Each structure stands twice: as structure tokens, then as C-alpha cells.
# Entry
Amino acid sequence: MKILIVDDSTAMRMIVKKTLRLAGFEGHDITECEDGAKALAAIKTSKPDLVLSDWNMPNMTGLQLLEALTADGVKLTFGFITTEATPDMRAKAIGAGAKFLVSKPFTPESFKEQLGAHIR
Amino acid sequence: MATAYPLPDGPKIIQMLGLLFDGLDVKAGGTFDQTPAGGAWFGVFVADDGTPAALCGADANLAATFGCAFSMLPAGMVKDAAKSRDLTSVMIDNIREIMNICSRLVMDATSPHLKLDQIYPVKSLPAPAAALLGAPKGRKEFQVQMPKYGGGVLTFLSV
# Structure
């Protein structure tokens, strides 16, 4: 499975990758992007199956990225990994087509629980 | 005294920073040199109104350790950087990355929101952050060690 991690923090991308591994999601093709705009371009080229995106990022936010993908008719599974997860953010995320929203700090267990249905 | 923002314990620091550094060891305690000549670096975390709400400091040895270990720079560079207080731009970027992650250690589900504003060498801390350093409501120190690179003292302070 091709997984794209989108976060402007190098350290957070490392943490997400390691947590995926600790949650037992191993053997996947994992790539990274540092903002929504770069992710939008990368997704059109590499066609990942799953995008794990931060919410707040420079150039293009995670929500703007999801909305752009939907407008372009790109089909993939999209979820947010964010510091904050207010009810309003959850509603916006789900309304835009996100499958899940995991709030930080997360654990391998919370990854298993929320991502298990989406990672084959 | 209760602080507006939670201060972490050792296991919580290991749980978070251990995802970045294999074999990380954290023990409560230690003496933190926050004198202007001491060479410490601080992450300044601000509330939504922009006022400093919490600080995370790495003493000169730990700042050099973080700066080198995050990019897996040669371990031999730690001692030189700590002694000279001369950190490269890559090391400073690495400290900023780690301080950004440390913002999650001074928040929980019930605390007000804060975010990393900037990192500073202790001698350049802006006045509001220096005031917090001088009179925090809560404060904790930790001795942090990582394989090959060494370590130093980490501190968290909160209003």
C-alpha cells in the first residue's frame, strides 16, 4: 500500500512513520511531503492509496488539500493527524470527505484503532 | 502550585521523544544552567494571545546533543558544539523541530492551547520569556541521555 505523510514538521513525519511501524503497519511504501501544495502535486504523480495529513501547514492546509483533491476527482483514503481536534474541525474534515481524524499526541494503540480499517 | 499548563514526567517525555531517539533515557532531576553564558537554548511556547505560557530549555550539552542526533551528525560534533556554543544552522533547525514536538508535552486535553513561537539562546530571550524564566509558577528538570551522543539537562517551565 502507498502511504503519503504530509506535515510541515520533519520530526512529526518521523514520529508518524515510527508510530505506524509500532502499530504493526509495516512493509508499506511510505513517502513524505512538507505542505499541502507539494502533496497535491505529488499525489497526482505517485497516486498513493492513503494520505495522512496535518491540518495546519504553510502554502496549503490539509483541509484545502482534501478539497482540491475532491474537486479534481482524485479517489483515495484521506485522514487527518492534528494537534487539535475540535468538534468543528471534525465536522469540517468529515464533511470534506476525510475518513478519520487522529489527534496528537497519539499512540500505536490509537493508530491501530483508527487506521486499522484503512490500511491493508 | 498548580500550573496553567501541565508539566511532563519522565515516562511522558520518553513516550514522545523516544519516537525520535532510540534508547532515550530520562531521569527526573538535574541542575540547569540558565545563566547567559551557560549556552542553553529555549523553546518559547505562546498562548493564543501571543504571551509566553511555557518554556522548554535544553542546556548547552543537550542542545548540542539534540542538534546532532536528530540529523545523525557525527557524535564527535556534540562536544565541540557544546563547548564552543557555536551551533550550525542545521543544529539550530533540529532544536526547533524538537522544541516543536515538546509543545505536546505541555498540553493535555484540558489545558489551554499553546504553540511554539520561536527558539532562542538563553542570552537572547525576549523580555516576556525571560520574565517567565525568572519566575515560573511550575518547573521540572530532567537528565536526558541518548546512546552514542550523550545528553544533558532538559527543563520545562510554565505560568
Notes: Residues 89-102 of chain B form the longest helix (14 residues). The radius of gyration of chain B is 14 Å. Residues 136 and 159 of chain B are 5 Å apart (CA to CA). Residues 10-20+39-158 of chain B form one domain.
